[in-house]
Amino acid sequence: MMFDRSDIERVREMTNLAALIGEHIALTPKGREHVGLCPFHDDKNPSFSVVTDKGNHFYICNSCGAAGDCFRFVQEFLRKDFSEAIEFLADRVGLQLQRGSGKPDPERDQRARRRTLLKEATAAALDFFQNSLEAPEGKDAREVIQKRCIRPDMVERFQLGAAPAGWDNLRKSLLARHIDERVLIAAGLLKKRNEGDGSYDAFRNRLIFPIHDDTGHPIAFGARAIAADDEPKYLNSSEHDIFHKGQTLYGLHLARPAIAKAKKAIVTEGYTDVMACHAAGVEHVVGTLGTALTDDHVRKLARLCDQIILVFDGDEAGQRAAERAVRTVFKHPVDVGICVLPEGQDPDDMLKSDAGKLEFEHAIDHAEDSLDFLLARFRQRIDESQGISGQQRLLEQFIESLRTLGLEEVDGLRKSMLINRISELMRVPSQEIERLLRRQRGPVAANSSEQPERASTAPAIGARHVAERELLAVILYRTEAVADAGIDPSQLLDSSRFIDPIHQALAMTLSDLLQANPPTMQAILGRLDDESHRETASRLFFIGERLANAEYENNQEHPIARATRALDDCIHEDLRQQETAQWRNRDESDDRTAADLIQKIGSRRRPSAILRTGNTD
Ligand SMILES: [Zn+2]
């Protein structure tokens, strides 16, 4: 699928970048920027900023250099390809796209088409399930809802539905809506018959909990058995192109604003737990889908908040799940609390009474720090072990397990805190723990970490480089200033005036774009295919801002004029040096070359010709 250039521009203009990114990452307004933790690297201090300065909307990370416009963000963060990103954003702002002509990519089109079909089928099924819940055949499901005390507003908020008993209710209804049977099978809504042709409903006689993606589109279903003897009690859609359990958190699309506001997320194990919390007014709650917590889950939440509280049942299985989860979160730079509820209790049960609600809140407030939890479990094992050598072996095993969990990746402060805690717990000096860590790291790693730090090899930045950079910077910051000053962009940004290859590329792109209306940063970033070019452009924007503001404040000459003259001076100086070198190395016998050189040196006036020819005042 190809798109009209003007469509792309329109989508970009209509997209509120800070709002878009704010749906996925907690952002704090700071002047004309919004700052937050970078979603593209393990950010510990907020180094990510979304700039919405007049017409310019782009993001940049000052640590890892990720930078771009709304399309880039959707591509990189939501892992969509360019055309999917356009469709996604167009859909978001309610724009109907015109299809342009261009290079066809059948494979990508097919993939996009497949995702669209899966989405459509899932949305149609949700429709069917919701209608069934209202209809006479939804009676049993409605009884379950009543018995479980799920309030009508929660039924609506979480879009509960019913799969009627019988083998082909959904099948008949959706085939009548001309949805392809193969798509319904791929979406996990129908199952192929083992013998012969045809298919049957995957969910029968069940209460349906739709599962949504981060943006609130239904992508799958959870289904609870209605009849007491139906197995299994809970059934999920099988995974497919748009549904991956390990990347999906139940209720995130509803909980996101509350999570970002509280800077805290509570993770429970079941659909009804999530619903019970929301019903009780605790809205920063999501659920895992019957799977252990994954790195993707943690990363997703860590982008939204500073603290994650994992809630587990008090039974042995819950304890084990908690320990597994602690191991997953170990290396992530986020505070994780472990809340193990009293045995036999879950949030759903507890939140049904006022006393239970207090008890639940108390348990959440007193969640145990995940490291404490890990160490407490370890201590229990130490206490149960026999003799000094047994304890020594346990300690070694424990440290080895921390290492495999990624202790090396944990940042310095957390790491030394952890080492101190183990040292206190074991009554072993922390140097001994460090020694164990080093020893177990193995000879290769140990050697490489002891190598002296590499000397900085950054070359001294020459005056020409600075001049090139500053000119591009002031132009990037205020593209309209070029036209305002009446300067011809193709002369000003002639790529032969730039030595640095990235500067050359930027100059060419700018020169090209400046032939039409002054481009915004997002249009410029949208034109730059190379990541390093986008990064440089974004950094230069800030340099441009600083330069322009400093010069306006000091009431000096126009920043573009000053930068242009500085670059001209450098070019002039470089040429002079080249010509002097040529003069020195000239072939004494070749009079004509020498005469040419003399003429060239003599005729070259000092530059800033661009400014003089262009400037109208
Ligand atoms: Zn970053």
How would you portray this structure in words?
The protein is of the alpha+beta class and 617 residues long. The protein folds into five domains: 5-93, Zinc finger, CHC2-typedomain (DNA Primase, Chain A, Alpha-Beta Complex), CATH 3.90.580; 108-243, Alpha-Beta Complex (DNA primase DNAg catalytic core, N-terminal domain); 247-369, Dna Topoisomerase Vi A Subunit, Chain: A, domain 2 (3-Layer(aba) Sandwich); 385-444; 463-614, Orthogonal Bundle (DNAb Helicase, Chain A). It has 29 helices and 16 strands. Strands 1-2-3-4-5 form a five-stranded antiparallel β-sheet. Helix 18 (412-426) packs across helix 19 (430-440), helix 21 packs parallel to helix 24 (501-514) and helix 21 crosses helix 26 (531-553). It is globular. The chain starts with a helix and ends with a helix. The structure holds zinc ion.
Structure summarized in a few sentences:
It is built from 29 helices and 16 strands. With 617 residues, the chain is an alpha+beta fold. The protein folds into 5 domains: 5-93, DNA Primase, Chain A; 108-243, DNA primase, catalytic core, N-terminal domain (DNA primase DNAg catalytic core, N-terminal domain); 247-369, Dna Topoisomerase Vi A Subunit, Chain: A, domain 2 (3-Layer(aba) Sandwich); 385-444; 463-614, DNAb Helicase, Chain A, CATH 1.10.860.
